[in-house]
Histidine kinase (Bradyrhizobium canariense), 461 residues
Amino acid sequence: MWNRPRFDLKVRLTLRVAAISAACFAVISAYFLITADRAAHARLDDIAAIVAKTLELQQGKIQWVASPRSDFPNLDPVSAYVMTPGLCLAFRGTSGDILQRFCSGAPAPANPPPQAFTAFYRSLFDPGREAARPVIVRGAKLGDAVVSVEPAVQTAEAWHEAGRLMLALAIALPLLCALVYAALARALRPTRMIRTGLERIAANDLTTRLPPFDLAELSAIRDGFNHLAESLETALAERSELTRKLIALQDEERRHLARELHDEFGQSLAAIRALASSARQTAAQDCPSLLGECDGIARTATGMMETLRGTLFRLRPPDVEELGLVASLEGLVAGWNGRSRGETRFSIRFDGAFETLPATISASLYRIVQEALTNAAKHAVATRVSLELTMGASEIALAIDDDGRATDPVAKSGMGLLGMRERVAALRGQLSFEAKPNGGSALRVVIPLAAADRPPLEHAA
C-alpha cells in the first residue's frame, strides 16, 4: 500500500477558503487600482481642459485690447487653484517646444512604496503619462496645454490606497480562517465518532453503533455503518457457530477413529505378537532356523504398536476436564521430550490459576499447543521450543517460540495453522504468526475469557 501524505480536512478546506478569499481581495485591489488610475487620468484631462481654456481667454484678451506687451502664455493664474503636489502644467507650442512649464514640488513620502510594487504599477498603468488639450483661438491652433503628474507621486498614492486594502486583508483573512476552521471543526466533529467506530470494528468489536447525526450526509454514512456492523456481526456469529460445529465434528471423528484403531488394529497387532511368540516356541523345538524370522515379526509388531500408541494419543488426548489443563500440557510436553530422544528440547511455563478455566477453552488450548508442537518438531526441525501460558484478568495469552527454519507459515504449518486459526476464531480470539529476523518463528494467541460464556464445542453440534 502506498504511503500517501495525510491532510486534515479542516485545514485543507480552510486553506482553500483562504486562497479564494485572497484571490477575491486581489481582484478587488486590481479593480480599485484600475479605477483609481482612470480617475487620475480623468482629473488630468479636466485640468488640461481648464488650462487650455484659460490660455485661450488670455490670448483673446490680448487680441481684444491690442496690447503690444504680450505675457502669453501665463500659467500663474490657473496654477493658483489647480496645483497639487507633483503636478506639472506646461504650454507646448506648435513647434513642439515647451514655452512655459510650472511644477509643484512633492515632499518625500514617509512610507515609500516597495520597488517591486513600483515596477509592477509602472509596467501596468504608466503613471507618467501626459494629458494634453489644444489651445485654439479663432480657428488657429496656438499649441497644447500639457498636464502631468510625477510618476513617483502617483505611485505613492496608489501604494497608500493599496496598503489600506492589504491591511484590511491582513486583519480579515486570519480572522476569516479562524472562523471557518472553527465552523468546520464543529460541523466535522461527528467524523471523530465515525473514525472511533471504524477502529472498534477493526478490533472485532462488532457491537459498535453510531448515534444519529444532524447532517444528512453523515446520517447516510451512519446508516451504512450500522447496517454493515450488523451484517458483520451476524456473519461472524454464523461463522463461529459453523466453526464450532466443524471442530466438534472433527474431534468426534478423531475419537471414533481412535476407537476403531484401538479395537481393531490394536487387537490385530496384539494377536500378531502372540502368534509370533507361539511360533517362536514351536520353532525352538522343531526348526531353530526360524527363530530369527519369529523375532523379527515380534519386533515389527512391537514397533507398530508403539507408533499406534502415539497416534492414538494425538487423536484422543487425555481428558483435559478431569486432569486439568496444566497437567495435560505438562504430560504432552513430557511425551514430546521422550519421543525426541534429545533431538528437540521442549519447555513450558505457566503463570496464573488455570483450575477454574472452562473446558471449552482448555480443550481448544490443548489442541492448539499440540498442533504447534507438531509443526515445530516435524516441519520447522527446531531444536528448542519454549511455551508460555499466561492467564490474566480478562484474557489468556499463549506464546510459543522455536529456533527452527523461518519459512512461510502456510508452507511450514500446512493445514495446522488453518486449524489453529479456526479454533481461535471460534473463541473470538486473535492469532499471529511471524518469522524472527535471526531465525525461528513466534506464535502468539490471545483468547478473551468472555469466550467461556459460549457453549462447549461438544454441545454445539
User: Anything to note?
Assistant: The longest helix spans residues 216-286. The chain has a mean pLDDT of 78.
